[in-house]
Amino acid sequence: MNQTLIFIPHWVFEGPLLAAWLIIGVAVLGFLLMKHGSGQETWSFVPVFAAVALMIHFVLPVLEISGINPEDPTGPAITIGLAIRGYGIFLVCAIVSGFALAIFRAPCIGLTSDQVISLGFWMILVGIAGARIFYVIQKSDVFLANGASFGQLLLAVVDMTKGGLVVYGSLIGGMIAGVAYLKFNKLPLAKTADLIAPGMALGLAIGRLGCLMNGCCYGGICEAPLPSVTFPPGSPPYMAQLNNGALIGIKATENLDSNSGFRWIAESIEAGSPAAEQGLQVGDEFSINAPDERYIRFEKQDGSESIALLISLESNRNDGVGAPSITVPVAELPARSRAVYPTQIYSAINAFLLCLVLWFYWTIRKYDGEVFALMLILYSVGRFLMELIRIDEKGQLGTGLTISQLISVAMIILGVSLLAYARRPSAKPVLPA
After folding, report:
1. What distances in angstroms separate CA 17 from CA 25, 65, 154, one per listed residue?
2. How high is the pLDDT of residue 433?
3. How far apart are CA 204 and CA 101, in angstroms?
4. Could you tell me which of 348, 353, 369, 424 has the C-alpha nearest to residue 197?
5. Which residues touch 398 (CB under 8 Å, ≥6 apart)?
């Protein structure tokens, strides 16, 4: 895990970056005019150029972080710059690699690289927006619990510097944008969907490595003799285990009795753990202080992070004796989280293998649309199973299934329907290349 790689200093956003982009934009527009004339392919670059310029001027400065002023450490915080996260780097690599595959095969169906790039821009733009909106909706209870205003919720949608994208949100958003673009430009829908499917799977594979860098999309505690990973303080798995007591020796289940005021029920207590030494017993209900009360996180100017932790646990016992309150100093907390299933790595391997299957199946497909339908089916089956060892989502609608599992079922149905439609009796077989 390495969330922050480098910082882009604040002065870059005070003018130089926007000026550089304007120069690049004018140069690219001139090149397109020379190559294509004043046609649609040339002017389709203008919205892209304008969107990036607006993002540089309005969005990126908002995402800069503040920190300690080295010249006045005790004074007010200063704007340091934009943190470049490992998650973001892998996301960019995923996008570039995925559409590189599509561009490589584009001539096989009569598309130009410029058409694929334009299609990719709109799919990426709407796809990322969809992924972030899904994340904010999925974690809305956390945002609302922290008293976020409507404006802060909108800012949360665009603040992706520390991750927080839902794959199905990006898939749905990208599909909507892709269909709209292809229909508007009168390009072949099924052929193009098959073209980009392997690249989408490759993008998922690389993107999951970004999840590993960020520490998100983590698995449950791994007690079996299987591969596992641990994470440092401040990471999502570490803080989740801190919140449910796992780091101090408690195995707990969530308390669904909202009237008790205690979030967890102790199922078992590890011998010799801080919880056992201070008298917590099986069956005790307990809560650990809210995140803003139990730790303070500092982000230094060099990009490294430090964290100060102090657990204060309050508990309740129904036998009239009363349960102890537990305080654990930072020195007694483990330096790493408990070992968890490496779901990010499993997901990356699964998506990479899916990319290979789709890449080679494209050469033997009989009908247009089969490859994309196959991607929806196989990815959704894998994602449904992966959710069995992930613990970062809760069951929904009283089914015990997570949002991702419910969407997986819908995507499998959609994929099977598209596959049946692609192979309908009136469909024309793919002509040999």
Report:
1. 12, 17, 25
2. 53
3. 13
4. 369
5. none
Across 13-26, b (16+ Cβ under 10 Å) vs e yields beeebbeebeeebe
Spatial neighbors of 138 by CB under 8 A, at least 6 apart, are 166, 393, 403
**How many whole angstroms separate alpha carbon 85 and alpha carbon 341?**
23
* Residue 1, C-beta contacts closer than 8 angstroms, at least 6 positions apart: 212, 213, 214, 215, 231, 232, 235
DSSP output for 243-266: HTTGGGTEEEEE---TTSS--EEE
Beta carbons of 296 and 233 less than 8 angstroms apart: no
Give the chain's length: 433
CA distance 202 to 209: 11
Helices (H), ranges, 13-85: 16-36, 40-43, 45-54
Q: Is 88 exposed, middle or buried (0-12, 13-18, 19+ CB in 10 A)?
A: buried
Reading across the β-sheet that carries 250-254, which strands appear in turn? 250-254, 264-269, 285-288, 311-316, 326-328
Q: Over the stretch 314-366, which tens digit does the pLDDT of each residue have? A: 777 766 566 777 777 666 778 889 999 999 999 999 999 999 999 999 999 99
**Proportion of the chain above pLDDT 90, given as a percent:** 32
Could you give the C-alpha distances from 19 to 14, 84, 187, 379, in angstroms and in order?
A: 10, 21, 35, 42
- CA distances to 47, 166, 190, 197, 372 from 111, rounded to whole Å, are 21, 30, 13, 15, 17
What is the Cα–Cα distance from 191 to 247, expressed in whole angstroms? 51
The three-state secondary structure class of 134 is helix
**Measured between alpha carbons, how far is 103 from 41 in angstroms, rounded to an integer?**
16
DSSP state, 29? H
Q: Which of 126-140, 274-288, 408-422 has the highest mean pLDDT?
A: 408-422
337 near 238, Cβ under 8 Å? yes
- DSSP strand pairing (311-316 vs 285-288): antiparallel
Q: What is the pTM for the complete model shown? A: 0.77
